[in-house]
Fold this sequence. Notes:
Strand order of the largest sheet: 1-2
Radius of gyration: 30 Å
CATH class of the largest domain: Mainly Alpha
Largest sheet: 2 strands, parallel
CATH topology of the largest domain: Arc Repressor Mutant, subunit A
Amino acid sequence: MGNIKTVSIKAVNIKDTFGKATDEAIRKAIEAVKKENAELVILDKKPGRPTKYSDKLCKLLPYLFSNGESVLEVCTYLDITKETFYQWVKDYKEFSDSYKKGLDLSEAWWIRLGRSGATGAKKINPATWIFNMKNRHGWTDKKEVRHDGNISIGKPPSPEEAYPD
């Protein structure tokens, strides 16, 4: 195509804030190409920096949690935001599986710490430990409700029966 110019329009430039190309944006892009008598080339690159994600992280991730670390501590180590971390959990199954293993290792570390505190091997603050387990690992106070399975439905007692003198 000899003397025809090539006009590159990044796909992100014709997309709205929800990542979808709007009819108006597409129309304007096509008009610009016609005006310049050019060929339209839409680049398929995402905006921003290239991802730091690598499959190697999946092997490393569980160990980053193995001393009771939180997601924020792991993110700081990886030099990423929590938003990026949770996006990777959503986008990459292997990363999600590694994250689950990491959470188990973190909880196990905290359980060992609590057992060491309970046996007197380490001095810990029990209230802080319990607070941590409830908030980070979903622990709750155990509540037992006993029921024999029988439910009796009958005539309600009269006021005299309910409130004898």
